[in-house]
Specification:
292 residues; 3-stranded antiparallel β-sheet; 10 helices; binds pyridoxal-5'-phosphate
Amino acid sequence: MIAAGGMSGILNCLLAMVEPGDEVIVTDPIYAGIINRILLAGGIPKYVPLIPSTNGWQLDLQALKNGVSPQTKMVVISPGMPTGHILTQAEWEAVAHVCIENDLWLLYDAAMERILYDGRQVIHPASFPQMRERTITVGAASKEFRMIGWRIGWIVGPKEIMNDVGLVSIANVVCQVGISMPGVAAALNAEDDGLKAAIETWEERRNLLLRELQGLPVIPPHGGWSFLLDASQLGLTAPELTTKLFQHAKIATTPMVGWGERAANNVRLVFSNEPKERLIGIGGKVRKALGL
Ligand SMILES: Cc1ncc(COP(=O)(O)O)c(C=O)c1O
């Protein structure tokens, strides 16, 4: 089913599947737009921490197990955003186990699934035994095809739920963006969609940023195009750090307030649109702004 972008697809799935008071398990941090859509659908987000380390983020598997209650309806997994966390095979197995054991849906946000670094490969949750029948995948042209404003996404899921998702979609967006559909079809069918080259560029930027910011409380991203800097380890709140970086170094960051519970200690740096030339020297600017 075609959607008016990935997030519209996610909202339609949530509206079709979540009843008021249902609990929805999400990672912490997670994109604020997903949290807000769960709330719009009447759901209650239940946060499972991503644990930071110098090697990257890890899903707290014990918290995932403990997070399930009789009210839990679904797990939402959205790799890449905002942390750069990419689930390992073992993490996906744990998610699959929890979904199967507790008869939960898995809503999989695949918008960034191919934006992977260091040779990582896509692992699709529906490929695990007994998961195909409980996984709804929402894809988007926005990120991998760099077509954010075109408002095209897609929803793939088991027949039993797609009828409801379709009814919500008609009640919500009516029809999709006609002029965009052939454009996205061309990207989908292109021999070279340009993603490989884009990933090489983003990976270079990521590596440069990690070198520039070495020694600061940064968690390296394994995919996606953003990563977090822990303000609390610098003795600041996230809004304070954002203000400092903006006023003293002209660097725009997002405070992660509203992106989870523990997430609120962090600010997000995005490198999707920053040429290397603009990133060179950013480490010095950040240190100067912080008086380090
Ligand atoms: C986590 C996440 N998933 C999916 C999307 C894709 O949404 P859309 O196609 O509506 O831009 C976005 C875009 O911001 C996003 O941040």
